[in-house]
Amino acid sequence: MAGKTTPKAQMFSMKLPVLAKGRSDQVLARTNMLQVRGKVYAQGGENTLHSHLRQDHGFFVIGGQATFHDEEPMVVS
Question: Which of 33, 41, 62, 77 falls 20 to 30 Å from 1 in CA-CA distance?
Fold first, then answer.
């Protein structure tokens, strides 16, 4: 019988580019149950309105402003 394996801790960096235009999307860490992405949006590089019904999302607004649309729009600065 195979022994139970314990997942190893992972370190990842949140060093992301500063953009003058457009956007970037980088996978920072990945497991079979989780994916951590670093997305940077410059002025004019906005994401189109969409949803993911089978995924959870978390957001960090480091600088500037973001508007999240749910039942009521939420503006974060």
Answer: 33
